[in-house]
Every structure is written in structure tokens, then in C-alpha cells.
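User: Can you predict the 3D structure for this chain?
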Amino acid sequence: MLKKLAVATALVALVPFSAANADIGSKFKKHDTGRTIEQIYKQCGIGGAIFGKSSPILAIISNVTWDLGTTAAISDSMSPDTCQGGNVKAAVLIKEAFPSVEQDLAAGQGAHLSALANVASCDSVNAVRAEYGVYTQTSAYQNATQEQNAEALYNIVSQKCAM
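Assistant: Here is the predicted structure, written as C-alpha cells:
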């Protein structure tokens, strides 16, 4: 019985992939915002934020692996311009991968820090590091939730980078 349940669960989990792969040879269907599903998975969500400009294939893989593409779909449906521009991509990256971004900021290097610099068009990552480092020493940081600290980081990035 347990084996049948496991097989059924696996098959249900594969349905989105088989539906998505059915259109690979042809044009992807349009979404309500006018973007194709392919564009949504390349430009939106955590995959679009990290890999959107450098590797669309990795963006798609990341979106599917991270959360089966729900973040990409949600970010696309929020507003017509959700996935366009560095500010949205930076916000998604910071929100969805905050612990990794914060760790890379502390180390001064890493894939998430590079992705943040890329999507935010930030030439002054050192200025972001310095200001966020000062912020981490305050009681505001110590008493804040992860979401509040992510918002504080986003505000610093917005001030220091040319998004």
C-alpha cells in the first residue's frame, strides 16, 4: 500500500513537468501578462534573478528546482512589469535567498553576491557591504525578523546601486 502511495505521489508530482514539456517543440502558450511560460521561467522568480541575464537555461532549471516555478509565476502575475528591471529582480533575489545573500555579503564573494551585483547593476558592492555591516551591529538588526532584515538590505542596495 505504501509503495502504491509513493508511486501515485511521484506521478502527481511529474504532471506539471509533463504538461510543460508537451509544448517544448512548439511555441509556448501565452500567459495573461503576455509573456510566454518560457519567458516567465527565464525572467522571473529566483532563477530569473540569479541567472536571467547569464544563462536562461539555468534560470529555468533553478525556478523548477527551487519551488516548481511558483515564485516565477507569482512574481509574473503580481503586475505586468514585475519581472522587468533590476529593482524587482534584486528584491526577489534578496527575499528568496536572503540567508545565502547575507552570507556572501559577509564573505565578500559568492554566487549570490555576484548575482545581486548583476541584477542591481551595482558597481559599489563594497559600499553595500560596508553599510549592511554597520546595520548588522545595531539592535534593529538583532531584534528584526529575517524579512525585516531583507527589506533593510534591499533599501541599502536601492540607495547604493543604480537599479
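The chain has a mean pLDDT of 75. The chain has eleven helices and no strands.
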